[in-house]
Design brief:
Helix content is 39%, strand content 23%. By secondary structure, the chain is α+β, with helices and mostly antiparallel strands. The chain has four domains: 94 residues, Reverse transcriptase/Diguanylate cyclase domain (Alpha-Beta Plaits, 2-Layer Sandwich), CATH 3.30.70.270; 66 residues, MutS, DNA mismatch repair protein, domain I (3-Layer(aba) Sandwich), CATH 3.40.1170; 59 residues, DNA polymerase, domain 1 (Orthogonal Bundle), CATH 1.10.150.20; 100 residues, Dna Ligase, domain 1, CATH 3.30.1490. The strands form three sheets. A five-stranded mixed sheet has the order 5-6-1-7-8. Strands 9, 10, 11, 12 and 13 form a five-stranded antiparallel sheet that branches. α4 packs antiparallel against α5, α10 crosses α11 and α12 packs antiparallel against α13. It is globular and about 50 Å long.
């Protein structure tokens, strides 16, 4: 495959940063965004400022838990409309450079700039500068030959990072890193790798693919092998028209706590419904996504009688699907998607 030049742009603590833009007096304080901003009520963390993250606050954590870990934090309600507005400004900037953009949620995107006249370095520098000057926000950028490495690069020097991984430096950069830094490796996989005596990506890369397939299953084992060598041929897939609205959360720790799973999906369904209403769409189908600790992923869908943007309709359908799922294994990620969209007049 010819050399590719990919950029991954990740807005820093996006929801929290937008809130700090609205409330500059809170700068430097631990800020937690989630639910209606009341940590005594049900709800999960949607975002946390870097000051709050120092206390172990992460997305998907119950607000009550976050409050216990960081009682001095300022809790704010989710303001989806504000995040949508800032996200659209962010996307408008990057669309000026290439149409080969694959966005993930509101705050991150891959760009394939291989065929652009400007260099990836120049494009990334310009975009970071414009995000700062035009939006008053910061983003971390990763530049690399593929999506895996670009994503890892953008995470290496957060916040406001700028990291380049060149082809000739892949092994040198990846080898000393903890296996936990590898995209797709969570706490349980890290623990299993440690049991096998593997603590760095370099050590992981020395294992035969067959050994990894025996210990982690054929697909996930092969993925670990390829990722540890910095291999990823997946293309940047542009997304033009909204065919769905979705939100998902990866838990800090794999869980079988049905209350936490249900609470998280409740918040995700609210965010998705808010997004639909803001963009004036109604949806016919609600899909739940569950990824277990072994990365086995299932999706289950249910349709509503008539296209709807009512939270009650969307949540009732989601809950109906959730109640039919047998949680025999710990869950790593949950998500909800609405599709079958119709635009309101």
């Amino acid at each position: 495959m010819p050399n590719r030049f990919l950029i991954h742009i990740d807005m820093d603590a996006f929801f929290a940063s937008v809130e700090l833009k609205k409330h500059p007096e809170l700068k430097g304080k631990p800020v937690i965004v989630g639910g209606d901003g009341d940590p005594t009520k049900r709800g999960v963390v949607s975002a946390a400022s870097y000051e709050a993250r120092k206390f172990g606050i992460r997305s998907g954590m119950p607000l009550r838990t976050a409050s216990k870990r960081c009682p001095q934090a300022v809790f704010l309600p989710v303001d989806f409309e504000a995040y949508e507005n800032e996200s659209e400004k962010f996307m408008t900037i990057i669309r000026e450079y290439t149409s080969l953009i694959e966005s993930f949620g509101l705050d991150e995107a891959f760009m394939d700039v291989t065929e652009c006249s400007k260099s990836a370095l120049d494009i990334a520098r310009e975009i970071k500068k414009r995000i700062k000057e035009e939006l008053g926000l910061t983003a971390s950028v990763g530049i690399a030959p593929n999506k895996l490495l670009a994503k890892m690069a953008s995470e290496m020097n957060k916040p406001n990072g700028f990291t380049v991984i060149r082809e000739k430096d892949i092994i040198k950069i990846l080898s000393p890193l903890s296996v936990r830094k590898l995209w797709g490796v969570g706490e349980k996989t890290e623990k299993r790798l440690h049991e096998l005596g593997i603590k760095t990506i370099g050590e992981l890369a020395k294992l035969p693919v067959q050994h990894l397939e025996v210990n982690f299953g054929k697909s996930f084992g092969r993925m670990l092998y390829e990722y540890s060598h910095g291999m990823d041929d997946s293309p940047v897939v542009p997304f033009y028209e909204p065919s769905s609205f979705s939100r998902e959360v990866t838990f800090q720790q794999d869980t079988r706590d049905l209350y936490l799973i249900k609470e998280t999906l409740f918040e995700l369904a609210k965010d998705v419904t808010d997004g639909m209403k803001y963009d004036k769409y109604k949806a016919k189908t609600v899909t739940l996504k569950i990824r277990y600790k072994d990365f086995h992923t299932i999706t289950r869908a249910k349709s509503v009688e008539e296209p709807s943007d009512s939270f009650n309709d969307i949540w009732t359908a989601a809950l109906g699907v959730l109640n039919k799922i047998d949680f025999q294994k710990e869950v790593r990620l949950v998500g909800v998607k609405v599709s079958g969209l119709t635009r309101q007049a």
